[in-house]
Design a protein that fits this description.
Blueprint: E1 4-11, E2 17-24, E3 34-41, E4 48-50
Antiparallel strand pairs: 1-2, 2-3, 3-4
């Protein structure tokens, strides 16, 4: 069984990358969940975790990246 769920997908402006967040349940009793951003290319391969200073969710693309 999986101990995570994925939500809030958002396509890049060029339609080649999908960004989403994955929330993972805590492993130990009393430990909360963790939400991290992930990206995957249109082929369904090359999944990468995006480093953020804290938990993150509900991603969207900035106009700065489309130039």
């Amino acid at each position: 069984t999986q101990n995570f769920y994925q939500e809030a997908p958002s396509w890049s402006p060029n339609g080649r990358v999908l960004i989403f967040y994955r929330e993972t349940a805590g492993g130990k009793k009393g430990q909360g969940s963790s939400a991290k951003l992930w990206a995957i290319d249109i082929t369904g391969y090359n999944e990468v975790k995006i480093k953020t200073p804290t938990d993150a969710s509900d991603p969207s693309w900035s106009g700065l990246l489309s130039k």
